[in-house]
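Annotators were shown the component list below and the corresponding predicted structure, then asked to write short factual statements about the assembly.
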Amino acid sequence: MKFDTPATTNPIDQGKVIGKPTDRIDGPLKTTGTAPYAYERHDVVPNQAYGYIVGAGIAKGRIALLDDRAARAAPGVIAVVTAKNAGPLAKGKFNTAKLLGGPDIQHYHQAIALVVAETFEQARAAAHLVRVDYKRSKGAWDLAQAKDSATMPTTGEADKDTATGDFAKGFKDAPVQLDATYTTPDQSHAMMEPHASIAAWDGDKLTVWTSNQMIDWGVTDLAKTLGIPKQNVRMVSPYIGGGFGGKLWLRADVVLAALGAKAARRPVKVALARPLMINNTTHRPATIQRVRIGATKDGAITAIGHESWSGDLPGGAPEVAVQQTRLLYAGPNRITKMRLAVLDLPEGNAMRAPGEAPGLMALEVAMDEMAEKLAMDPVEFRIRNDTQVDPEKPERPFSQRRLNECLRTGAERFGWNKRPAAPGKTRDGRWLVGMGVASAFRNNLLTKSAARVRLDDKGIVTVETDMTDIGTGTYTIIGQTAAEMMGVPLDRVVVRLGDSAFPISAGSGGQWGANNSTSGVYAACVKLREAVAKKLGFDPLQTEFADGRVRFDGRSKSLAEAAGDAGLVAEDAIEYGDLDKKYQQSTFGAHFVEVGVDVATAEIRIRRMLAVCAAGRILNPKAARSQVIGAMTMGAGAALMEELAIDKRFGFFVNHDLAGYEVPVHADIPHQEVIFLDETDPISSPMKAKGVGELGICGVAAAVANAIYNATGVRVRNYPITLDKLLDRLPTVS
Ligand code: MOS
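Structure shown to annotators:
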């Protein structure tokens, strides 16, 4: 189905099943521990051996000597795979560094060997017997130092500089100006389920049970890496314990499981041990961001500039931190620029809301600082600079943009009018109390997505698509979509996901999963409805599907009867025309945060959080709320604690486990509230939905930073905002 004109009324609008806060259909499996995750699939293939990865002990250089004789002779060892004996391996499209390194080492903990043994313990013990001598080379690990050598990225259209009007003049002439620089650190996805895979060969056919957000990207890249035809690879990933972008691509576990299984001539399972994950896989790159804003005295932005520096391995890409600044506020004179430095740290890549998440950590604090200079309320300053068209291309309107309503609704619900404009004015015992606000913005991306729907002689509807559920609620919203379309209750729908044997979906990434994958199911259901009507001799356009029955012209049949013994099956994909070129499609929100800062110790506690989101039709408000509060929690981590510390002598992330890399725990997270504006976006898809999973993190950290400023009068421009950065500037204890 081609979607190239705005949606009109369709069966989804009935809202009998879609739009309801249904419990997750996979909930019982998850809460009883019976959803099978990749490493636990002891039953899928017999005789599984265990692989253990050896990570490089230097960040850059060469292996001078790798001696695996002791490892091979150790008890239980079946095989040792290294770059020397693995045969030729290509680099996948989505990987910057090789997943099996050697002799050249590109980053610390790059995999250099896999030891396969009868048991996990034997593999681990033998892995420690692999002797490696290195020849270390000089590398660059410090973004601040490498900043001046950074160059314009050549990775893609979106990475190029943009310029509208005359920024230099607009900024120089502006009566009120702000020029501030912010830094965000390297961050780790730190998802609960480690990267893990089981691989089994049957002749030249390979099956992998793994944990991957994007099945078709994974199959394509695995085939390319191993140099085998794509149709010889099957990838299965029905349950994923979190990804946040860290599982968009193949990692060493799956490639080495495949190579290990080949060498051992039996199935092999491999997990990345937690201490290996952080340096072995991708991370969100650190940024240095300079924001300049010029405005008239009454608060109209006349010039806005955003420059961002980040680093990556050679061949890598920048963190697109200027993305939102191209679209979020009005103003005739504008520039954005990104510069990319070569750093020999582990590979940087997408982490929840890549671009906007770190970008708004700078822009939305700059907006707060500017509002203060203008003596304007920060909510009003944002509202004053709303735009209903793409400010760089005024002929392109937003498909929907209700940012101002998010800000106004949030201000009212949060009690914003109680916030003193001057900082340091509210005291609650030992706590200095403050409130902060930030806009939320994240683009809505459209991508082809296919599904197959079957109807059987019991009236059961089964959906099959290679779409994944990374903890987001995909099973449930896909089930709700099929139930609404076919006129059955949700318990008559079976959803099967995450298998490359199924039609290719959009996958889970960039908050595009929900809208695109349900639209693919919509398209397949439209075809199935036609097939049902045709079989009964009904007019497909006039046939009603409700209560498990099909009705036309006074005649009625149950779906089970309509399907007959043979059943019916339909497959289709949603494909998009140019509606996303004619209209800018984005999602909007506003975050409000209240913090308390201990006046003596500078301990920071978040006290209340509110998000208001405008993101098209909300397919399941319960699942969507969970996405947003999870994202708000991640935003709190970004504001207050998350930071990969670099050992600048040797070039690796020191705090590479969950003891050293701090993320929020329950005690860090207070009352959270989420409001969804009631809206549908007919330009986004037949579902009229968009994404919320990433919108929820966008702006949160800035709202926390702004609340800390309001509480204390101390402006911290370097994340995370830890107490040591406040302590010597707090008001005198009284
Ligand atoms: Mo997302 S960072 O595209 O999983």
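Statements collected:
1. The mean pLDDT is 97.
2. The longest strand covers residues 431-443.
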